[in-house]
Amino acid sequence: MTADLRAWLVEAEKAGELQDVRGASWDLEIGALSQVNYRRSVPKALVFDDIPGYVTGLRVLSGSVSNPRLLGSVLGMGWNHTDDTLMAELATAPGEWIRKAADFPAETVENGPLLANVDSKPDIDLLTFPVPRWHEGDGGRYIGTGCAVVTRDYDTGRINLGAYRMQVQDYGRTATVNIEAGKHGAQHLRRWFEAEGRAPIAASLGMHPAYLVAAGVEVPADVAEYSYVGAMLGSPVRTIAGQVTGLPLPYDAEIALEGWVTPDDKRPEGPFGEWTGYYSGSRDPILNIDVERVYYRDDPILLGAPPGKPPHDYSYMRTVMKSAIITDALRRAGLPGLRGVWAHEVGGGRSLLIVSIEQRYPGHARQAAYLAAQLPNAAYMNRFTIVVDSDVNPRDLGEVMWAATGRCDPETDIEVMKRTWGSRVDPLTLPGALAFNSRAVIDACRPYERLADFPVVAESSPELVADVSRRWPEVAG
């Protein structure tokens, strides 16, 4: 399967999953229409064209991974998925992609569509592209939302892709890159600063959404995201080395930039409407990229993935991917009796994690809770981890809260972990404070010692429900 965005858009249009929107302004209207789209029962991918102030053909894409058919296609799994079938196919896939990534190293090529146009200093102007101001409270125009920021490990040479927000600065000449401490990209930059005093950096700003998936989930540090995308799609991706930094960029990306960051070159950044559903950033100085080159195809497409109050652009993707990745990680950790995991969209796919188990021994529920709360794939910004019995659907918050109200004794079944991995985008993190958080692990399972005599659930058996539904279909709907 090719990783070309334009080929994917043709498929999306044939599948009825693409909607053309014309005449919306970069200033708030694209962002507001994207929000309206995400809150439809079945969102579509939106392509914005004829943007006022820009020539026809300079486009912005949003909603690319907002429903199971779109996300399934992006992951190389076809166009016919529902929530259930996608989760079933993803049950082991992320782990397989990690294990097979080494078999799909990226292929470096000398030329490609990305090099159709190359701008160098002093002629760089990022506002040549219709960069949106996504939210009314944003402090500027954000060119990097659906981006893949490229960094290199100074010691090993390993390439990392990360989805970090990027605000246009200096009237289009530069851009800040806001990377949370603890992320692989931040670790790479710190090591370069120690060794060289500056760090190379690049970013793909429009590309096949598979790169956004790889950049937006926690791929293990020893796995290259380009290889991960290759394993996902079943064939190696092709990259082009940047002319300044040598960092690899997707050869068929729509827009990309490269340059350098230094620890003292910073700009005020934000606020920005984040995945928590709140604005973050208070004009605190953030690392600024001294942009040396900008590459772009003819009539390029900027890939937008603006967050905000859930549901937002990538909250569905993150929920599905995180749920599958955490499920696989718990299985590989040896947790028995696992029946389901769901990283709820209301928590941005991070802050509310539900684990369903079939209890097998005393302490099993707490073991599941502690493991899930601190797995490397789940630890960042987790706030509530709730463990439920196997008769509770972890995707149904109504069922989860029913279990919590009837099977959880707050005095004995809720524990709090302190000084855990938080985030600057957490609305509870005070300006200037270190980004710790705390998290509650909630045992909403029936007490193990009362499994035999705990009150029976008062509802009709599945067999009886099936029988009456067959006989009275007008009631069953």
Rg over CA atoms, rounded to whole Å, is: 23 Å
Mean pLDDT: 94
Count of the domains: 2
CATH fold assignment of the largest domain: Pnp Oxidase, Chain A
Tell me the number of helical segments per DSSP (H or I, 4 or more residues long).
Answer: 14
* Unreliable stretches: none
Q: Percent helix among the residues?
A: 25-40%
> Which homologous superfamily in CATH is the superfamily of the largest domain?
Electron Transport, Fmn-binding Protein, Chain A
* Largest pleated sheet: 10 strands, antiparallel
Please state the structural category: alpha+beta
CATH class of the largest domain: Mainly Beta
CATH architecture of the largest domain: Roll
**Strands, total number:** 24
**C-alpha geometry:** globular
Distance between the termini: 40 Å
The share of residues in extended strands comes to 25-35%
Structure in words:
It comes from Kibdelosporangium philippinense. The chain has 477 residues and is of the alpha+beta class. The protein folds into 2 domains: 5-303, Electron Transport, Fmn-binding Protein, Chain A (Pnp Oxidase, Chain A, Roll); 333-450, UbiD C-terminal domain-like (3-Layer(aba) Sandwich). Helix content is 27%, strand content 25%. The protein has helices spanning 5-14, 29-38, 68-74, 83-89, 93-100, 184-196, 209-216, 225-233, 315-332, 364-374, 397-407, 410-413, 462-471, 473-476; strands at residues 18-22, 45-49, 59-62, 107-108, 117-120, 142-144, 148-152, 159-162, 165-169, 174-178, 199-206, 238-241, 248-250, 255-261, 266-268, 272-273, 279-280, 285-296, 301-303, 338-343, 352-357, 384-389, 414-421, 436-444. The strands form 5 sheets. Strands 5, 6, 7, 8, 9, 10, 11, 14, 15 and 18 form a 10-stranded antiparallel sheet that branches. The chain has a 5-stranded mixed sheet with strand order 20-21-22-24-23. Helix 5 crosses helix 8 and helix 7 (209-216) packs across helix 8 (225-233). It is globular and about 75 Å long. The mean pLDDT is 94.
